[in-house]
Every structure is written in C-alpha cells, then in structure tokens.
Design a protein that fits this description.
By secondary structure, the chain is of the alpha+beta class. The chain contains 11 helices and 6 strands. Helix content is 49%, strand content 13%.
Length: 317
Amino acid sequence: MIEEWEKQIDEINWSGTYEITIENGKYQCNIEFEKPISLPKAKSTNQSLIKKIKENTDHTALYKLIDERYESSITSKYNNKRTDSFNSYIRILAFNYILDKEEGNYDLQEFFKQFEFKKLVEKDVVNYTNKYIQYHSEVGKHKREYLEEHFKKIKCIASDSKECKKEANKLTEEEKEAFNNSKDKYNVHFEENFKYADFKSMLVENNQCCYCGISLNNLYSLREKGKISSKSGRGFSMEIDRRSPNLEYSKENCCMSCYWCNNAKTDEFSVKEFEPIAKGINIVWNKRLGDKEGDKAFDNIIKFPYDTYKEKIKPLK
C-alpha cells in the first residue's frame, strides 16, 4: 500500500510517498521524493528499521529513513545528469571526429585513447545538429551506423540492465578501458564546472520557472482550483533544463523550468527564440490566476523573468 509523507529537510518542505513490500521473506521500503522536485526513487532493505516503520505510528523510523536516503537521492540525480552531460559532450566530439575521416578510416577506440578535453565551439555543435540527421541518407549510412553501434555500447557501460550488459560485453577490454578512462577524465571536469553544492542548491531552492516565471506555489494554487490539465504526472515540481541543449550540464547552462516550458522548448529553440513562446505561456498562467484578459494578463500576477533572456550561455572552457 502506497502511503504519503511530508517532512522538512534543509529548511525545505518536502513531500512524497513510500511503500513497503516483501519478497522472499524480506522487506523493502521504496521512498519517492516528489515535491518540490522529483528525485530518483530511494530504496532500503534495512530490516530492523522497516519493521519499526510498520510498527511506529508516529513515523519516527520513517523520517529517519527519509533523512538517510535524501542525500543519496540527490546524489543519484547529480550522477544521472553527469552521465547525460558526458553523452552529449562526447557524442558531438565523436561525430565531428568521424565526419572528418574518410569512409572506413575511423576508429573510435583510438579516438577515446587520445581523448583530451576541448572547449566545444559553435562549429562542433552546428555540425552535429545540422548534419547528424543527414546520416540517414546512403551517403553517410555507414558512418552513422558505426557511430550508433558504438554509442549504444558506450551508453551501456555503466548500466545494470540485462540488455545493456549484453551490449557492453561486445566491447573488447581495450575499448572498455579507453571508454572508461575518458569518462573518468570527464567526471573530474564535470565536478569542477558543476559542483555538487551548486547543483543541489539549484535543485531544491529554485522554485520558479526561469522561462515563464511561474512558481511552485502558483502551480499548487492552479491545481487546487482545477485549472491544470496535465495527465502525465509531471507538473508537480520544477525540472532542471539546459538552456543550450547541446552543451553540457553546468551551473551557467542550467536553470529550473516548469514542465510546460521544458516540454515546449525541447532541443530545438534557443533561449532567445523561446522568449515569445514563454511570454505566451506567461499570459495563459496569469489569465488562469486572475481576471485580466489578453495581453493585459502578461506580467500581471506572475512576473516575467526578463533576466533569463539577457544572458548568453557560452561553452565551458
């Protein structure tokens, strides 16, 4: 049975759900952190503590377990973003490496062995975004297949799924070593450019959408009034978004976004291009919260975050 919980952690009011299951005679407690931000599910098999949770009506044992798992859930989300960032970064570099090679004269293993960090420049990103899809054509078919085959295996190195383990096992020991070494180098780079403390602060303290300006309190108010139509389960918390989607996750390149702006911006629009769309979303929210119509609703109750659109995100050094 799924139960709800609420607790203040780090001076933030958190809420979520928990469920106790039993398998092969052993208990497992699954904890979900849902508001103000969705975190990866936390699991515990601490039998004595879970038994106390079942017996303890004042939730003392449950709150102890939540405290224990809170930091690990944020760390898990941080690690997920680090992996996503590595995949974005390395895919662009590898694509440009293959793009410059003659047909059949490319070797990603060699590319990873020689892997050194470089600043992503506009040309790298433009090449990837404008030319990658063209590799559906016969001209680039073999290069694209080569890239996809290797990246499927690379992305599986750190995964525990059975399907991914099969893919990772297709790598030679030399390939695994080369790929893992490059990832180790990247981890150091990532932690320097997006410190865990900055990530956590952004995640739990920023409760306003950087694009349209709506806050979590505004969203909760709209939900209570039945003026939110999302059926996906998203929209209860802010989501971390890359302003420039083809660059890495970093303190400068990330902000907190509402589900609707994150979903609408996708990987297609630059921040500046998205501004008029965000203004339209701001108008809708203000109309739902107030009584003004049309353009008069813009920037009325929910203030538009003009500062977001003054910044220009640059590639990391």
